């Protein structure tokens, strides 16, 4: 039984980077928007928290960069890896043509709180926490059906939200895309990831990086007083790792990165280890009349390169650029929705293609053998020719065809 009904111009399911950024930009452009987030806050541990130079460039374009950089964060200017016993300098961000020449490691909940606070300055921004999209409202005769809203469950009961456009930004397990009947192309990933934290010492390496050897990959992100760590395992291999026991995993970590020997005991039980099931997929078509998906709901990314947050932000910017005016002025068409997909398909496919190539040619091979490895000469080239470090830095830090904010502020701010 429906307890309430709401009418708005745009309803966004999902309060992640894509949903909150799009909601903020649309409200800023004068479009009334309702954003639904099923949790009571944004706090979830081990979510993507790498904010890349492309995203900070957007903050600069919006006049928010100085304020944004006051949010606590760590700055990563170079990435390194240890392949076998050889340290490889992989990426150098200090030469990028951006205002910020580094990756900011910032908890995703802080990033989302910042964006939500900016959205709330505009009267058209309606963020509803603890409100979960459960179904689509579809009307019209067969063959001419149109999504005209969605049903949600909130803290005070069920809600019908009618909107000119529904946006699915509810992640890789999207309810919206499932209810819409979209076809998903599963590209596959040979790995899963176990996330954990280990404390950091002053004597530890400075740089964020990774370790590859003995059939294992271990990634370390420098978070100041602790390391956020990713222990990469074969797809579906969690039961095998669990069967070997926590002590077995501790020993494998120390074998890869010996400086952790004095603190792997901080992993006291399996509650300290979180499993991320990796998926790489994409929708063949992101839209149908009255509905479009963006971010992970349209294309789930691998954690390789930590690009997920930033690709989602780029989707949101492109969507706002195309959709704001027709939404505000009441002439939205399916061609506008198709235009968003056309704009974002090429960059998305390039990034996913690189991720899949890395998965197949590096990660899968490393995980398939427990023998010691040494870096091939092509990898050693990054040390021999430092200029090459700018290539992965450009791909990761800026991406392909970066988006820029084209929408101007339309509605005056009324709330501080």
What does the overall shape look like? globular
Low-confidence stretches: none
**Mean model confidence by pLDDT:** 92
Name given to the CATH architecture of the largest domain = 3-Layer(bba) Sandwich
What top-tier CATH class of the largest domain fits best?
Answer: Alpha Beta
Query: Could you tell me the strand content as a percent range?
Result: 25-35%
Structural class by SSE content: alpha+beta
Helix content: 25-40%
Task: List the topology elements.
Blueprint: E1 4-13, H1 17-28, E2 33-37, E3 50-51, H2 53-61, H3 65-68, E4 74-76, E5 78-83, E6 86-92, E7 103-105, H4 108-119, E8 125-129, E9 132-139, E10 146-154, E11 157-168, H5 175-180, E12 184-186, E13 191-199, E14 208-213, E15 216-222, E16 226-234, H6 238-244, H7 246-256, E17 274-276, E18 281-283, E19 287-288, E20 291-293, H8 308-329, H9 334-367, H10 377-384, H11 390-397
Parallel strand pairs: 1-2, 1-11, 2-8, 5-14, 11-20
Antiparallel strand pairs: 3-7, 4-7, 5-6, 9-10, 10-11, 12-18, 13-16, 13-17, 14-15, 15-16, 19-20
């Amino acid at each position: 039984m429906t307890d309430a009904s709401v009418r708005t111009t745009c309803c966004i399911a999902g309060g992640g980077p894509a949903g909150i950024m799009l909601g903020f930009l649309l409200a800023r452009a004068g479009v009334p928007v309702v954003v639904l987030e099923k949790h009571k806050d944004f706090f979830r541990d081990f979510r993507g928290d790498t904010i890349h130079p492309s995203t900070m460039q957007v903050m600069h374009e919006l006049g928010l960069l100085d304020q944004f950089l006051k949010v606590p964060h760590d700055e990563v200017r170079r990435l390194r890896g240890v392949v076998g016993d050889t340290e490889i300098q992989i990426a150098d961000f200090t030469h990028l043509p951006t205002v910020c020449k580094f990756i900011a490691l910032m908890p995703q909940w802080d990033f989302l709180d910042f964006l939500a606070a900016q959205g709330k300055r505009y009267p058209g921004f309606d963020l509803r926490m603890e409100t979960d999209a459960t179904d689509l409202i579809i009307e019209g005769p067969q063959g001419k059906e149109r999504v005209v809203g969605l049903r949600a469950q909130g803290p005070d009961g069920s809600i019908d939200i009618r909107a000119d456009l529904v946006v699915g930004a509810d992640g890789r397990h999207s309810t919206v895309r499932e209810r819409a009947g979209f076809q998903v192309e599963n590209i596959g990933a040979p790995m899963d990831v176990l996330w954990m934290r280990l404390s950091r010492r002053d004597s530890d390496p400075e740089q964020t990086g990774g370790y590859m050897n003995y059939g294992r990959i271990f990634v370390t992100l420098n978070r100041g007083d602790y390391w956020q760590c990713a222990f990469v395992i074969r797809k579906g291999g969690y039961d095998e790792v669990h069967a070997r026991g926590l002590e077995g995993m501790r020993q494998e970590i120390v074998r890869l990165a010996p400086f952790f020997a004095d603190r792997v005991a901080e992993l006291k039980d399996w509650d300290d280890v979180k499993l991320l099931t990796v998926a790489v997929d994409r929708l063949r078509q992101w839209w149908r009349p009255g509905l479009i998906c963006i971010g992970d709901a349209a294309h789930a990314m691998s954690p390789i390169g930590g690009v997920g947050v930033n690709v989602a932000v780029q989707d949101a910017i492109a969507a706002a650029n195309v959709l704001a005016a027709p939404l505000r002025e009441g002439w939205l068409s399916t061609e506008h929705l198709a235009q968003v997909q056309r704009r974002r398909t090429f960059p998305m496919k390039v990034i996913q293609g690189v991720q899949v190539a890395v998965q197949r040619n590096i990660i899968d091979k490393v995980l398939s053998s427990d023998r010691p490895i040494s870096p091939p000469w092509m990898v050693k080239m990054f040390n021999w020719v430092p200029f090459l470090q700018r290539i992965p830095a450009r791909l990761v830090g800026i991406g392909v065809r970066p988006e820029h904010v084209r929408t101007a502020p339309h509605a005056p701010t009324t709330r501080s």
